[in-house]
Amino acid sequence: MVGRAGLYAVLLANAVVVAVFFAQAGFASNALIVLGRLTGLYAALLMAFQLLLVARLPWFDRRIGMDRLTSWHRWTGFSVLWLLLSHAVFIVFGYARASSLDPVNQLVDLAGTVEGVLRAIVALAIILVVGVVSARYARRRLAYETWHFIHLYTYVAVVLAFTHQVAAGTTFASSPVATAYWYAVWGVALASVVTGRLVLPLWRNLRHRLRVTAVVPENDDVVSVYITGRDLDRLPARAGQFFLWRFLTKDRWWQANPFSLSAAPDGRTLRLTAKRAGDGSAALRHLKVGTRVFAEGPYGAFTTLHRTRPDAVLIAGGVGVTPIRALLEELHGHAVVIYRVATDQDAVLYDELRELALARGAELHLVTGPSVPDRLAPRELARLVPDIAERDVYLCGPPPMMKAVLGSLRELGVPKPQTHFERFSLAG
């Protein structure tokens, strides 16, 4: 939790610094303009923080997890939207109060006479569109690729907003120290994005030159893809992590999908196992040996890095068994593995799990049957693992199953620091 506390501390410290610079710059006589300038400053600070959240820097990702960073990104994004709307409303109505113009004409006047305001209006319009398509109702109805393409325009809005701040921000230019501070904040944020989203993936893929070596169907709906490359022993991947995989075929080179490693990295081969759930995962079965692969990652905090107890419980649901199987290969101490599926035929990689459990002295429980009654309710979990509150618990599976199991763990008194899970939904 050091990474999470550190991020909060950095954000709070910068919020205090912004307030100090704002006070030093002096207050306008109009209270609405004062509020407008302050909300604009904090919107700019949160926009820079947003860039840090989506930069995919390995240090943050290993300690916090991509799912939590993405969740914070979502809520920070809506905070930015409301702050920018407040900034625009307060500024326009504040200047309208000091003039004889109505708010609409005042906005037109500001756009035509004050440098940078028109750019700010365009930036706000872009962020409004992104906010609308990011709402849950719209997000569920858009293809991921469409939503992601629209979302990328946020970077255009960030650049426009920053140039507006440089041109019109009184606090930005109130002193050489304030100017240096704002350039430093935005410089760190932009450098983080360029490093994490562009430089690091390009460098790693040029170094490792990944290729498909085998495609193995596990059943009618699930396939495993084996990948090799150069110097894989130097790739900092761990069991439980995932990559964004881009297979460079004519029809799929532009599409990236997150798949977990289904075997612990051994320095020679990487393996992913995926269930057919859409066009991207369905196409894996038809990959040819030798296909070039561009992989972004490794990502995720679902690793042994956060172990707090010597023994563990690994709970998998459906194809969520893939990172669980990899973790079992790496875990030390006694482990209990619980694999929840509807039928025996749905138990992908079960033979491998059984062999691994036997080799490592772990207990393996295959739990089958319908979801009602709940086979992973508190009483059932306590029966399978009487000392579950004394163990680390790793959980991966479909969202409804994970929600139910997390509720069971709370009822059984498993402390939060001992509960490890990750949802693989990405933004930015």
UniProtKB/TrEMBL annotation:
Cofactor: FAD
GO MF annotation list: 2 iron, 2 sulfur cluster binding; flavin adenine dinucleotide binding; metal ion binding; oxidoreductase activity
Gene3D superfamilies the UniProt entry points to: Nucleotide-binding domain of ferredoxin-NADP reductase (FNR) module, Translation factors
Keywords, in A-Z order: 2Fe-2S, FAD, Flavoprotein, Iron, Iron-sulfur, Membrane, Metal-binding, Oxidoreductase, Transmembrane, Transmembrane helix
Membrane topology, record value: Multi-pass membrane protein
Subcellular location(s) per record: Membrane
Major location (coarse): membrane
Transmembrane annotation, as ranges: 7-27, 33-54, 75-96, 116-138, 150-168, 180-200
CC terms in the record's Gene Ontology section: membrane
Pfam family, one: NAD_binding_1
Full protein name: Oxidoreductase
Organism annotation: Streptomyces qaidamensis
